[in-house]
Amino acid sequence: MKVLQSFEDEYYLLIEVIWKGEIFIFFLDKTQGTETLGIPQKGFKLSEVLEKHKKDKNYCLPCELLLKLEKKVARHENNVLEWGLTLEKLERFRQKLLSGGSDVKGY
């Protein structure tokens, strides 16, 4: 797993990685307590979305990410949405991220 970029503020943690030959985005919404793992649509640039988030405090970062992730799995407490990815994939991703000694803050 190779971290391409990461971002963290008081509301969100985002990590973009190459894992098993594909680009994945991990998104933690700290205020809602939701975790999302997804594979973005072709041409998606996380840096552009992050720039919009930094410039416009009314910009809905979670909304944009959910629309731009082609396959995704999201979890909030006991509720799970599996749309092309499984909860098991999210768990394996988290385990790999934690065991890899990631330098991403909070992990």
- Number of helical elements: 3
**Radius of gyration, in angstroms, nearest whole number:** 13 Å
Oligomer state equals single chain
Helix-strand category: alpha+beta
The helix fraction, in percent, is 25-40%
Question: What are the main properties of this structure?
Answer:
alpha+beta, disordered C terminus, six-stranded antiparallel sheet, 3 helices, 29% helix, globular, 107 residues
Characterize the structure shown:
- The protein is α+β, with helices and mostly antiparallel strands.
- The protein is 29% helix and 40% strand.
- The chain contains three helices and six strands, in the order E-E-E-E-H-H-E-E-H.
- The chain has helices spanning 46-55, 61-68, 87-99; strands at residues 2-8, 12-19, 22-29, 34-40, 69-76, 79-83.
- A six-stranded antiparallel β-sheet has the order 1-2-3-4-5-6.
- It is globular.
- Residues 101-107 have low confidence and may be disordered.
Short description:
29% of the residues lie in helices and 40% in strands. It has helices at residues 46-55, 61-68, 87-99, and strands at residues 2-8, 12-19, 22-29, 34-40, 69-76, 79-83.
Explain the layout of strands and helices.
Elements: E1 2-8, E2 12-19, E3 22-29, E4 34-40, H1 46-55, H2 61-68, E5 69-76, E6 79-83, H3 87-99
Antiparallel strand pairs: 1-2, 2-3, 3-4, 4-5, 5-6
